[in-house]
Amino acid sequence: MTPAEATLLALAIHSDTGSLTFEQTTPRDAAMLTWLMEQGAIQRSIAEFTHNFLTDEQQQLLSQGLTELQRTRVNGVEVGSLLLVGRSFLKGMSNVASDLLDIANLDVLILAYVNCRGRRGKKKKRTMDDDVFCGPEQLKQVSLIGRARARVDGIDFRELFADLGGGGHARAASASHKATEAEAEQILNDLVQQAANQIPQPKPVTEFMTTDLVSIFPTAPLSQALRLMGLHGHQILPVVDENDILQGLITAQDIKLAERKGGMEVFATPVGAWVHQDAVTVSPSTPFYTAQKMVAENTVGMLPVVDEARKLIGAVTRMDVLIARRLWPEKMAEHRDRTADN
């Protein structure tokens, strides 16, 4: 196999699996990419062609979409909908939808692109009638695109778009339909409502948080924090007083920075001198969906759960999110629990 052939096959796998991020991705896909790299697949070319650059027309629609986007919040999930109208079929609207999802910080997006001419075959040419009769009541081509982040539970665009002849995956699907502009708007509204009905009621963080926490007093020496981290395999420790009132967090990175500044002598200094006192926290009633978004955005990786008096009752970690999202094997979760018990 030549490097060019390996590159083309690797690009196909990246496209089909979202660069190994789609839920239907298998270990075989990853193994195949590894093998193709061994055959000389050109990573520079793969990086260039897997990044979807928008054309000028797509960028204009993206800008318009950010202005006209309709937003609604359903059980803590940010749902966006958008109807765009153009004069001709435009390739790559899925790229516009993906960028819109990211830039607008949405969790779910349903986009309808209405155009007068639809997809044209090579032999079909534009006529003057296309411009004359392209009115609001004329049947038009409607491209429907649904996108949702992997962390959103319940959403299944494949099911929603099935009646419209569409297809795809649960969180990335599309459909093509004939309708007037008014009908297209109604279809979009119906899809948004159906998607909203799929989103389950949020569960509180207390159903997923870790309660067997290893904590440390602010008066303890920094050496004790390092020892506890090594003993339990943690990178973060909550710092609490004698009443379990949260004082902040101490991380392995904090200890490394402290050692660089003061050498070995810093290990005799109290933990409280190096603690993150502005730690982001949540209450027991906080929806887990909100908490997992905060964990993703929080560089520390631990989200303490505290009551009204800031008493520490648990924490949400990246591993908790992985287990809750069923992205962490059950055997690994059981191993973690046994380790915590010991």
From TrEMBL:
Entry-linked SUPFAM superfamilies: CBS-domain pair, DHH phosphoesterases
Alphabetized GO MF terms: metal ion binding; nucleotide binding; nucleotidyltransferase activity; RNA binding
Alphabetical UniProt keywords: CBS domain, Magnesium, Metal-binding, Nucleotide-binding, Nucleotidyltransferase, RNA-binding, Transferase, tRNA processing
Domain CBS: 209-266, 275-334
Cofactor: Mg(2+)
Pfam families per UniProt: CBS
Gene Ontology biological process: tRNA processing
Domain of life (superkingdom): Eukaryota
Signal peptide: none
SMART domains: CBS
Protein name from the UniProt record: CBS domain-containing protein
Native organism: Chondrus crispus (Carrageen Irish moss)
